[in-house]
Amino acid sequence: MVPRRYTIINIISFGAHEWIDQRDQILYDGKSRMTSLVNVAFSEWTHGLDTRKSMISIFTHIRDIPYSVSMPVSDPKTSPEQLLVAGKGSCGPKHYLLAEMYRKLNLSVVYATIAFSWNDPDLHYPPGLRNQAIALPIAHHLACRVQIGCRWVLVDATWDRPLAQGGFPVNDHWDGYSEMKWAVKPLKFPVRTAFCHNLTNEPCRAKGEDELYPIDGEKDHWDVENQVRYYREKVAVRTPDEVKRLAQFYREFDDWLDDVRHGHV
Q1: What is the dihedral of CA 257, 262, 263, 265, to 10 degrees?
Q2: Edge-to-edge order in the sheet of strand 219-221
């Protein structure tokens, strides 16, 4: 039997929310695995709150973890903890974490994936970054749908609040049951055009109807393995040149986000 050995991780801070000298253990029992930092965060973010307030608190904390598209995602099952350790991450890790925490509240959650273009006219890109965005291949964005009563509500925690000054559609002041805006504009599909009449981040409703419709082209998955398989199938068609251009764009995009957060737009 391999004897147990313990190491301490100090989580100093992430985003606007600080953990001062919070510690969690890494347990070695023949192979390394981390006891859940997710449980530490979940307990802190939901302590003394009912379900609706817990949902709002979890969403707010995850939203305010700074977005970074260039942070690597090695394994969706461990990326929630990696997100908390790194203190930044992209839409994938953010929504893997959100789904895991919402399921701890006994909520039903699916992963919602849509296609989009980085060349969003509403973003205040500097000229060089805009030129790069124009030439990029189709990308895919991940958010969550959560069953609230009889409705499957979109919850999108992608952009942290300071990014609003760069034209990003930040979801702010959520009430715990309303449909949110998508962080990106879904690509225009014929069915979406018929229902929504334009390209928008707003929830999609048929004319004269209160009922929300999933956007045309949205793909929902119950489990992370199917979602990851679907995503990998979509990005597998990229050429080596497209992969290279994306990597350069990601680095410069993250640098620009830091400028936006500091008001340099």
Answers
A1: -30
A2: 151-155, 139-148, 109-116, 219-221
Backbone angles phi, psi at 244, to 5 degrees: -65, -45
Residue with tokens 């928008």: 200
Name the H helices within the chain. 37-46, 51-63, 79-86, 91-104, 127-134, 190-196, 224-235, 240-261
Measure the CA–CA gap between 218 and 142, rounded to whole angstroms: 10
CATH T-level fold of 38-261: C8orf32 fold (3.10.620)
Q: Are strands 139-148 and 151-155 parallel, antiparallel or unpaired?
A: antiparallel
pLDDT in tens, 62-76: 999 999 999 877 688
**What is the C-alpha to C-alpha distance for residues 62 and 64, in angstroms, rounded to an integer?**
5
Residues 6+ apart with CB under 8 A from 58: 42, 45, 46, 98, 101, 102
Summarised one tens digit per residue, pLDDT across range 23-36 is 344 333 323 344 48
d(CA 90, CA 69): 5
pTM for the complete prediction?
A: 0.80
The b-or-e profile of 18-28 (16+ CB within 10 A means b, else e) is ebeebebeeee
Terminus-to-terminus CA distance in the chain, angstroms?
A: 58
How far is it, in rounded angstroms, from Cα 250 to Cα 261?
17
